[in-house]
Write a structure and sequence with these properties.
Elements (H helix, E strand, L loop, with lengths): L1 H30 L4 H5 L2 H16 L2 H4 L2 H9 L2 H15 L11
Helix pairs in contact: 3-6
Amino acid sequence: MQNHNRSITLISVVIAALLAGSAAHAQTEEKAEPSLYEQLGGVYNIATVVDDFIERLLVNDTLNANPAIDEARKHVPKAGLKFQVTALVCQATGGPEQYAVAP
């Protein structure tokens, strides 16, 4: 009977410790600072900035004078470039989007 009481006490202590740890973890998550992705406003805001950025790059005379960039632009459509850069920025800032090198 004494072993049974010790087992119940031990189980109670373990359960209490798990519950306390779970509650502390939940409080930590609530107070966690938002990710940079969230601070930037998510994918739609990031896509808007990337769209403007790519449009500016495409008309940049210095970049257009580079033969390697000129060649790359022949293989990657503007919309694809915007999509890839948006995915890259989203992933790098903590968003759920996944950047993958296009085939």
